[in-house]
Amino acid sequence: MADRSEYDAFVAAAWQPLLRTAYLLTRDWAVAEDLVQTALMKAWLAWSRLGNEREAYVRKIIVNVHVSWWRRRWRQVEVTTGSPPDRTQAADDMGRADERELVWQALGRLPARQRAVVVLRFFEDMTEAQTAETLGCSVGTVKSQTSKALAKLRIDDSFASTFVRRG
Amino acid sequence: MPINRRDLHDLLEERSRPAVERPIPWESLRTRVRGARRRRFTAVTAVTAGAVAGFAAVAVVASGSLLNLRGPDEDGHIAASVAGQIPAQFQEADGTVYRRVATATLDAPRKKSVTFDVEMRGKPLAILADCPTESMFMMPHVTVKVTGVSKVFTLSPAPSLSAGCQSNRPVDVMPLPAGTRRATFTVEAPKGFENVAPHERLERWRFGVYEWTPPATMKAASPPAEPPAAFGGRPPEFNLITKKSDTWPAAREVTITVPNTGRPLAFEAYCGGDIADRLSTEVRVNGRLIKGLLDCPAAPANQGGAYTDLGGPKPRSQKTVTIQVRLVAKIPEYRQRPGTLTVAVYEGPR
């Protein structure tokens, strides 16, 4: 049988970093917690096969289940009968905080796959290859999705070389 | 002026920081783990109860391993649909029996597709995949051809194995023409399959094609799961105002009418029982068909919500809003499988 105490220790250690990732993907704490629990439940069912890649495995489930949920939601939310959401913001007199808020809002409007690429590349500090592994797509797809996402977020790509990796 | 990547990193770091203050929901997590294990072995329990064989040799079950029971099948095995296995026969909770009629392996690095024939006996078909990944970007594509028929058939209700991989359940094949005796299946590896990292490369996909038979006597449907009381942030933006459930197949639609208070509305429709994710829904709002057929998802507690936003405030002249959700079974045998349909309506902030 799978070792329950080992699993509990893993959950205790990995919960917060996983929840951070899930929140950045979903932008809703309740949905993020639901997503992490779903992934941890699946991890328990496969626990004996996971080896040392447990957190990576769970993170992979989180990202892919999120994209799956989002696709279902996108299909269902696309038809509305009322006014479109107010997304216009005054651009003048914009301070740094406003700029960050606008980027945060723009991040929320990205399609799930592009948002996932941004979170994995620029929060998790994954390489393009690691991001491709996590999403189950090619490195070329990660590059193109990153480029599209950064363009929408108005991130200056030339700062790449000054970006400092964590830990 | 655009911000740089460092700023982006700091922004993500800052916005996700409240996670450190949120306690681990141990109780909820343990309940879900127990529930998942119970669901996984439900089929086995049902088969055990119905077995007429003189003995049942039960293997010790480790997570993900196959539970074998002696039973009436011709090769002596009846098994649960356990992750990573393509059992000869198994039974779902509603009593429907799945009997394997073909297996296939897609040796992905060497071959990009595999084609095989299945003899048919007039029963609906479904395909169960031993999924090495749940990534929806890496799902093989399944098509089915029938000699003399130009139409190419695929999976139902969505043409993807993704839902089956996530739930470890068979995915239905679209109904084939009446009288079909032989169907030719083709499973193709997804585009970009060979570009993943070496340790991620999937060497083998295994598939089982099953014919399924609903129980002669239909069981009563289990009570529907409760919808979430609210959704959309903290505090929630949308709160439940009303809900209604009915039982399939006796009832095939649920209609709810709510007063137009001027607030935004949203609703969620979901199914209970083994019909979940297998039947389609047709939705009308104030009589107008607002979308094509969609699959009816399982209860939100199992899969996360899929709320349909009905947009902002409605015109004052519109006194009520009526939401009508109808279940559609493309495969007639689903009329012998019990389930529930629930529609929950939510109201947002003014």
UniProtKB/TrEMBL annotation, chain A:
Residues 101-153 form the RNA polymerase sigma factor 70 region 4 type domain. Keywords: DNA-binding, Sigma factor, Transcription, Transcription regulation. Residues 18-75 form the RNA polymerase sigma-70 region domain. SUPFAM superfamilies: Sigma2 domain of RNA polymerase sigma factors (SSF88946), Sigma3 and sigma4 domains of RNA polymerase sigma factors (SSF88659). Pfam families: Sigma70_r2 (PF04542), Sigma70_r4_2 (PF08281). InterPro entries: RNA_pol_sigma-70-like, RNA_pol_sigma-70_dom, RNA_pol_sigma-E_actinobac, RNA_pol_sigma70_r2, RNA_pol_sigma70_r4_t2, RNA_pol_sigma_r2, RNA_pol_sigma_r3/r4-like, WH-like_DNA-bd_sf. Belongs to the sigma-70 factor family. ECF subfamily. This is SigE family RNA polymerase sigma factor. It comes from Nonomuraea antimicrobica.
Automatic annotation (TrEMBL), chain B:
The chain crosses the membrane at residues 41-62. It comes from the Bacteria. Keywords: Membrane, Transmembrane, Transmembrane helix. The keyword Transmembrane helix applies. This is Uncharacterized protein.
